[in-house]
Write a structure and sequence with these properties.
Blueprint (H helix, E strand, L loop, with lengths): L3 H15 L4 E6 L22 E5 L2 E6 L2 E6 L4 E6 L14 E7 L4 E6 L7 E5 L6 H4 L12 H11 L4 H6 L9 H11 L12 H22 L7 H8 L18 E4 L4 E4 L1 H4 L16
Antiparallel strand pairs: 1-6, 2-3, 3-4, 4-8, 5-7, 6-7, 9-10
Helix pairs in contact: 1-6, 5-6
């Protein structure tokens, strides 16, 4: 799933190419992806694009009072075309969900692999009309996301486990399964550690790890072409997706906990005092 660093890089990539261009073509191929009906999708036609904003993991293409907002979910992506294919495509065939064409014949596709079909597209007059955007917590890279505001978030979380707190979009916007694993590895904390048990020093370390991990990932990703972002993310992760490999820090074999529809990875040597965590395949931690 694209998370804050990749979505921020996509924002910059699209902003550079869309700003000042005009919507000339919008073709919806996956009808279940469109979550709004008023304004209609074709209300975008003829509008000049003002820029692209990010809200957590959402992107919003702004055009003269309308916003084309989309969330790529677990298997969605953006494919850019310098010259958009002209031949028509049929709904329900392949991964293509939405095709957007511009007045210079360039454009982009929103695609979604697999069969779950969770990609979401909204056309609204204000991004806050999208319920999932309106409920977002603060952006962890914003200037006002201070150590004090982080303390308030942790205090409100009570007995929740730290992995779940980092991933809850209503608490902190933009962090998903992969970067929560990376942040906790950098902070040397178990994913199941109760937030209420973190002392002041551990909170300091977690805050620094959170900001540092995301900042570094954004700096690596920004400027890359959309087609290169997935490989760049995978190649720079230290624990997530690396079960069975040696930890770069201590050499311990990276372990995994599986859930009903996902998994997390961690280093027993760095994070759990050598303890291997029990499988929690039926757990509801990762909803």
């Amino acid at each position: 799933m694209p998370e804050l660093p990749e979505v921020e890089a996509l924002r910059g990539f699209l902003d550079e190419r869309l700003r000042g261009r005009v919507f000339a073509r919008v073709e919806l191929l996956a009808f279940s992806a469109l979550k709004t009906y008023d304004p209609p999708l074709d209300a975008l036609l003829g509008l000049e694009i003002d820029g692209v904003a990010r809200h957590g993991k959402f992107l919003a293409v702004q055009a003269q009072g309308l916003h084309l907002c989309f969330h790529l979910a677990r298997a969605g992506w953006v494919k850019w075309h310098e010259a958009l294919p002209t031949r028509p495509v049929r709904p329900g065939k392949g991964p293509l969900s939405l095709r957007v064409g511009l007045d210079d014949d360039a454009g982009f596709d929103l695609t979604e692999a697999g069969t779950q079909r969770k990609l979401a597209i909204h056309v609204v007059t204000d991004p806050q009309q999208v319920p999932a955007i309106a409920s977002l917590g603060p952006d962890p890279l914003a200037a006002d996301f201070t150590r004090q505001s982080f303390d308030a978030i942790l205090d409100a979380a009570g007995k929740a486990q730290v992995k779940g707190v980092l991933r809850d979009q209503r608490t902190i916007a933009g962090i998903g399964n992969a970067y929560s694993d990376e942040i906790l590895h950098a902070a040397r904390l178990s994913p199941f550690r109760p937030v209420a048990g973190l002392d002041g020093d551990e909170r300091d370390v977690l805050y620094t790890a959170l900001r540092g991990t995301l900042t570094d990932a954004v700096e690596r990703a920004v400027g890359l072409a959309a087609k290169d972002l997935k490989d760049d993310k995978r190649s720079n992760l230290r624990v997530h997706g690396r079960a069975g490999e040696p930890c770069e820090v201590c050499g311990t074999t990276i372990a995994q906990v599986s859930f009903a529809d996902s998994s997390l990875q961690y280093c027993p040597g760095c994070q759990t005092g050598g303890k291997v965590l029990a499988d929690r395949r039926m757990s509801k931690l990762l909803k």
